[in-house]
Sequence to fold (328 residues):
Amino acid sequence: MDTILVTGGAGFIGSNIADALLALGTKVVVLDDLSTGKQANIAHLQKRRREAFVFYRGSILDADLVKFILKEHAVTRICHQAACPSVPQSILDPVATSSVNIIGTITLFHLAAQHGCRRIVFASSCAVYGDTEYMPIHEAVPFRSKSPYAATKAAKELLAGVFSGLYGMAIIGLRYFNVYGRRQDPASGYAAAIPSFITKALTGAAITIDGDGRQTRDFVYIDDVVQANVNALMLDDPPSRMFNIACGEQTSIIDLARTIVEVVGSSSPIVHGAPRAGDIRSSLADIGSARTCLGYAPRYDIRTGLRETVAWYQAAYGIDTCAHQVAS
Fold:
């Protein structure tokens, strides 16, 4: 039985990946310092026997701990999701972001090579592309990173190529576009547009859009991101390269807000604020390579994914939109 280490496995994306891997019968070890992840995301997994699931609270910067985990559990594959994930925070504190995202990744790649890991799948980002005239964006588009966060993701990709070449490991990078879905924390300082908009719509609060709202994104539902990671981890001999992981549809932020208000059945007003520093203007992915090489087949368009996401927030947070509106 394979043992897979999921770094950042108590986070939004990592915990969903851990669920899927356990359902396949693999042993999963999660490493997370809980700086942005939440123990509640894996509480149900910690009820499993140690032979199936183990959690370590710690950082990927802790080389001794990473080395211990790889050796103790004979880890054969790694799903690397741990990162400082915020564009604004990377502008405020680029040193901390670079430390985790770059030094942490070097640590992990180096120790994985020493301990015979066969494959690493890691999270990159569409942020590496920045603003580009190429639409849809394919993987060969030149980088125009606009934030320290984006630059650290580009650095991780360069490191992947180096370590794959040096040690013959399969290292696959997944350039996530705008991921959303269950367990994305709306109260976090790293919260993206969708969880923020949904929770405001559910309570009838005003939805604030950064800038004019005409900026576009390619939103991808969490189950499709999980599918991409599982395929990259488990398929026979996928190529060591980077892949766009997205829905392949372009949605403006103003249309996103209007759709959420409609799906929720909310009376929330939509207002505009100042543009956000480091924001990109347009985004739409070419996902042909992931389809061909990873068997990636996204199943959720934006409306379908939003319905699933709204239902999860209503259940998780106990928010009744209609009752709130009547009470107010």
About this structure: The chain has two domains: 3-177+221-245, 193-217+248-283+300-327. Residues 3-177+221-245 form a domain with the Rossmann fold fold (CATH 3.40.50.720). DSSP finds eleven helices and 13 strands in the chain.
